[in-house]
Amino acid sequence: MSQQLIDAIADMREDEALALVEELAGSGAPPLAILNDVKTAMDIIGQRYEESVYFLPELVLAGEMLNQIMEVLKPSLAETAAEKSLGKVLIGTVKGDIHDIGKDIVGFMLKVSGFEVRDLGVDVPAPKFVEAVREFQPQVVGLSGFLTLAFDEMKATVAAIEKAGLRDQVKIMIGGGQIDDAVREYTGADAYGKDAMAAVKLAKSWVGG
Fold this sequence. Notes:
This protein is α/β, with parallel strands linked by helices and 209 residues long. The chain has helices at residues 2-10, 14-26, 31-50, 56-78, 101-112, 126-136, 150-163, 181-187, 196-207; strands at residues 87-93, 115-119, 140-144, 171-175, 191-192.
């Protein structure tokens, strides 16, 4: 069933994918396991986009499928949500990158895990992150980027937060695409999350949740 769901999403078979999610959720499958399959499928879609197999319409449809899947899973995920906020997390896709599927999954998982999340959206310039850190006062900042060109912008954003005198107040994690520890070191972030669950684990470890 797992591979069947991954293939249905990755091949843009929307009705089949939603039917499978509803069937899995109804049979008591762990929602996080279903989301893991969704993430795998979204990675495939992202790869096909990079290779010009898929284009913007497919990305839009993938985003719509994701939103519908989240709606199906929301009740079962909400059962595990904390009753009070663990802390604040600011997330956004850095300037020059408009990928938001991975970021949306991370944001959703943080919310159901008990965090207050502010999502700045995509193509977010460094000054906007700085302004939001000042105003929202998060403990954690998550910088997302799928394209390799995002690495320089992540580095610039971390530097801007530091220049503003706010670096000591926040932990910064990065995620998306080809990110590994070498990229984390290059950008000056505190850690990187390979998936949404890793991001939640990092955030919890930083706020003591």
